[in-house]
Amino acid sequence: MKGIQAFTLPAPIGRLLGSLPKGPGSRLFVTGLNLALSPHLPTDTCAMLEGRALRIEVADAELRFDYTWRVRAFRAADHGGRTPDLTIRANTWDYLQLIQRGEDPDTLFFSRRLVMEGDTELGLLVKNTLDSLDMEILKPARVLGNLVSGNGLRLPDMSALHRGLAGLPGRHRAP
After folding, report:
1. How much is the pLDDT for 164?
2. Could you give the CA distance from residue 120 to residue 86 in angstroms, rounded to a whole number?
3. What are the distances in angstroms from CA 158 to CA 19, 34, 145, 161?
4. Which residues touch 155 (CB under 8 Å, ≥6 apart)?
5. C-alpha to C-alpha distance for 172 and 175, rounded to whole angstroms
6. CATH at 43
7. Residue of 59, 102, 125, 173 with fewest CB within 10 Å of its CB?
8. Is residue 75 in a domain?
9. Residue 174: what pLDDT?
10. Is residue 149 very low, low, confident or very high in pLDDT (cuts 50, 70, 90)?
Protein backbone atom coordinates (compact mmCIF):
# COMPACT_ATOMS: atom_id res chain seq x y z
CA MET A 1 0.00 0.00 0.00
CA LYS A 2 1.75 3.05 -1.26
CA GLY A 3 2.11 5.95 1.14
CA ILE A 4 0.99 3.99 4.19
CA GLN A 5 3.57 2.60 6.56
CA ALA A 6 3.29 -0.79 8.19
CA PHE A 7 1.33 -0.75 11.42
CA THR A 8 0.17 -2.89 14.28
CA LEU A 9 -3.12 -2.14 15.99
CA PRO A 10 -2.57 -0.77 19.52
CA ALA A 11 -3.10 -3.39 22.24
CA PRO A 12 -6.13 -1.60 23.82
CA ILE A 13 -7.94 -1.66 20.47
CA GLY A 14 -7.05 -5.33 20.04
CA ARG A 15 -8.41 -6.15 23.49
CA LEU A 16 -11.62 -4.25 22.73
CA LEU A 17 -12.10 -6.04 19.39
CA GLY A 18 -11.18 -9.36 20.99
CA SER A 19 -13.94 -8.95 23.55
CA LEU A 20 -16.63 -8.90 20.84
CA PRO A 21 -18.74 -12.04 20.36
CA LYS A 22 -17.14 -14.39 17.82
CA GLY A 23 -20.27 -15.64 16.04
CA PRO A 24 -21.41 -12.42 14.34
CA GLY A 25 -17.88 -11.70 13.09
CA SER A 26 -17.60 -15.19 11.61
CA ARG A 27 -20.98 -14.82 9.90
CA LEU A 28 -19.94 -11.47 8.41
CA PHE A 29 -16.59 -12.93 7.33
CA VAL A 30 -18.15 -15.90 5.50
CA THR A 31 -20.67 -13.60 3.83
CA GLY A 32 -17.74 -11.69 2.36
CA LEU A 33 -16.01 -14.92 1.32
CA ASN A 34 -19.16 -16.20 -0.34
CA LEU A 35 -19.72 -12.96 -2.26
CA ALA A 36 -16.13 -12.43 -3.37
CA LEU A 37 -14.35 -15.77 -3.39
CA SER A 38 -16.74 -18.72 -3.62
CA PRO A 39 -17.76 -18.19 -7.26
CA HIS A 40 -14.11 -18.42 -8.30
CA LEU A 41 -13.03 -21.56 -6.44
CA PRO A 42 -12.13 -24.59 -8.55
CA THR A 43 -14.30 -27.67 -8.04
CA ASP A 44 -11.38 -29.79 -6.78
CA THR A 45 -10.56 -27.14 -4.15
CA CYS A 46 -14.17 -27.14 -2.96
CA ALA A 47 -14.07 -30.93 -2.61
CA MET A 48 -10.90 -30.72 -0.48
CA LEU A 49 -12.41 -28.01 1.73
CA GLU A 50 -15.70 -29.87 2.32
CA GLY A 51 -16.37 -30.16 6.06
CA ARG A 52 -12.92 -28.93 7.12
CA ALA A 53 -12.68 -26.73 10.22
CA LEU A 54 -10.92 -23.49 9.27
CA ARG A 55 -9.89 -20.45 11.28
CA ILE A 56 -8.48 -17.03 10.40
CA GLU A 57 -6.89 -15.13 13.28
CA VAL A 58 -6.04 -11.44 13.11
CA ALA A 59 -3.44 -11.41 15.88
CA ASP A 60 -3.15 -7.69 16.61
CA ALA A 61 -6.94 -7.23 16.51
CA GLU A 62 -7.47 -10.34 18.67
CA LEU A 63 -10.14 -11.44 16.18
CA ARG A 64 -10.90 -15.02 15.21
CA PHE A 65 -13.18 -16.18 12.43
CA ASP A 66 -14.22 -19.86 12.53
CA TYR A 67 -15.77 -21.31 9.41
CA THR A 68 -16.09 -24.35 7.19
CA TRP A 69 -17.04 -25.20 3.60
CA ARG A 70 -20.30 -27.13 3.24
CA VAL A 71 -22.61 -27.64 0.29
CA ARG A 72 -20.96 -25.14 -2.10
CA ALA A 73 -20.56 -22.29 0.41
CA PHE A 74 -18.52 -21.09 3.35
CA ARG A 75 -20.45 -21.37 6.62
CA ALA A 76 -19.76 -19.79 9.99
CA ALA A 77 -18.87 -22.47 12.51
CA ASP A 78 -18.32 -22.90 16.20
CA HIS A 79 -15.40 -25.27 16.53
CA GLY A 80 -15.84 -25.27 20.30
CA GLY A 81 -12.84 -26.85 21.95
CA ARG A 82 -11.87 -28.67 18.75
CA THR A 83 -8.61 -27.61 17.12
CA PRO A 84 -9.33 -26.45 13.56
CA ASP A 85 -7.88 -28.42 10.66
CA LEU A 86 -6.15 -25.22 9.55
CA THR A 87 -5.49 -21.92 11.33
CA ILE A 88 -3.98 -18.98 9.48
CA ARG A 89 -2.68 -16.14 11.67
CA ALA A 90 -1.22 -12.73 10.83
CA ASN A 91 -1.56 -9.08 11.82
CA THR A 92 -3.95 -6.71 10.09
CA TRP A 93 -1.19 -5.07 8.04
CA ASP A 94 0.11 -8.39 6.77
CA TYR A 95 -3.36 -9.49 5.61
CA LEU A 96 -3.72 -6.18 3.77
CA GLN A 97 -0.36 -6.78 2.12
CA LEU A 98 -1.45 -10.27 1.04
CA ILE A 99 -4.75 -9.11 -0.42
CA GLN A 100 -3.11 -6.28 -2.35
CA ARG A 101 -0.16 -8.45 -3.41
CA GLY A 102 2.20 -6.08 -1.61
CA GLU A 103 3.96 -9.05 -0.01
CA ASP A 104 4.42 -12.62 -1.16
CA PRO A 105 2.88 -15.24 1.18
CA ASP A 106 6.18 -17.14 1.27
CA THR A 107 8.06 -14.03 2.39
CA LEU A 108 5.54 -13.46 5.21
CA PHE A 109 5.66 -17.14 6.16
CA PHE A 110 9.45 -17.37 6.33
CA SER A 111 9.67 -14.10 8.25
CA ARG A 112 7.12 -15.59 10.71
CA ARG A 113 4.60 -12.83 10.03
CA LEU A 114 2.16 -15.36 8.56
CA VAL A 115 1.60 -18.54 10.54
CA MET A 116 -0.22 -21.65 9.33
CA GLU A 117 -0.98 -24.36 11.86
CA GLY A 118 -2.61 -27.71 11.30
CA ASP A 119 -2.96 -29.78 8.14
CA THR A 120 0.03 -28.92 5.93
CA GLU A 121 -1.59 -30.25 2.74
CA LEU A 122 -4.71 -28.17 3.40
CA GLY A 123 -2.56 -25.10 4.09
CA LEU A 124 -0.74 -25.54 0.77
CA LEU A 125 -4.05 -26.01 -1.04
CA VAL A 126 -5.40 -22.74 0.41
CA LYS A 127 -2.16 -20.86 -0.32
CA ASN A 128 -1.86 -22.14 -3.91
CA THR A 129 -5.55 -21.47 -4.60
CA LEU A 130 -5.28 -17.89 -3.37
CA ASP A 131 -2.04 -17.40 -5.32
CA SER A 132 -3.77 -18.52 -8.52
CA LEU A 133 -6.68 -16.11 -8.19
CA ASP A 134 -6.74 -12.68 -9.78
CA MET A 135 -7.06 -10.30 -6.83
CA GLU A 136 -9.23 -8.04 -9.01
CA ILE A 137 -12.12 -10.29 -7.92
CA LEU A 138 -11.87 -8.77 -4.42
CA LYS A 139 -12.38 -5.18 -5.53
CA PRO A 140 -15.72 -3.87 -4.20
CA ALA A 141 -17.05 -2.82 -7.62
CA ARG A 142 -16.33 -6.28 -9.00
CA VAL A 143 -17.96 -8.04 -6.04
CA LEU A 144 -21.03 -5.83 -6.29
CA GLY A 145 -21.19 -6.34 -10.05
CA ASN A 146 -21.04 -10.11 -9.61
CA LEU A 147 -23.70 -9.97 -6.92
CA VAL A 148 -26.10 -7.92 -8.99
CA SER A 149 -25.64 -9.74 -12.30
CA GLY A 150 -24.93 -13.24 -11.03
CA ASN A 151 -27.89 -13.60 -8.73
CA GLY A 152 -30.37 -11.57 -10.73
CA LEU A 153 -30.61 -9.10 -7.86
CA ARG A 154 -31.60 -5.54 -8.54
CA LEU A 155 -30.44 -2.58 -6.56
CA PRO A 156 -33.27 -0.53 -5.06
CA ASP A 157 -34.29 2.63 -6.88
CA MET A 158 -32.62 5.36 -4.84
CA SER A 159 -34.24 8.27 -6.71
CA ALA A 160 -37.06 8.64 -4.16
CA LEU A 161 -34.53 8.81 -1.33
CA HIS A 162 -32.47 11.33 -3.27
CA ARG A 163 -35.57 13.50 -3.92
CA GLY A 164 -36.44 13.34 -0.21
CA LEU A 165 -32.95 14.40 0.83
CA ALA A 166 -32.94 17.21 -1.71
CA GLY A 167 -35.96 18.73 0.03
CA LEU A 168 -34.20 19.03 3.40
CA PRO A 169 -33.09 22.47 4.60
CA GLY A 170 -29.63 23.34 3.35
CA ARG A 171 -29.96 21.05 0.33
CA HIS A 172 -30.33 22.27 -3.21
CA ARG A 173 -32.65 20.57 -5.60
CA ALA A 174 -31.16 19.22 -8.80
CA PRO A 175 -32.49 21.05 -11.89
Report:
1. 46
2. 8
3. 37, 26, 17, 5
4. 148
5. 9
6. 3.30.1050.10
7. 173
8. yes
9. 46
10. low
Give the C-alpha distances (Å, rounded to integers) separating 78 from 10, 38, 52, 115, 163.
27, 20, 12, 21, 45
Residue 173 lies in a domain: no
What CA–CA distance (Å, rounded) separates 39 from 98? 20
- H-helix or E-strand containing 143? helix 140-150
- Which residue would you say has higher pLDDT here, 144 or 83? 83
Query: Which amino acid does the sequence have at 76?
Result: A
Average pLDDT for 73-102: 91
Supply the DSSP symbol for 71.
Answer: T
- Say if strands 86-90 and 54-58 run parallel, antiparallel, or are unpaired: parallel
Give pLDDT, residue 99. 80
Res 150 pLDDT > 70:
no
Residue 4 pLDDT level (bands cut at 50, 70, 90): low
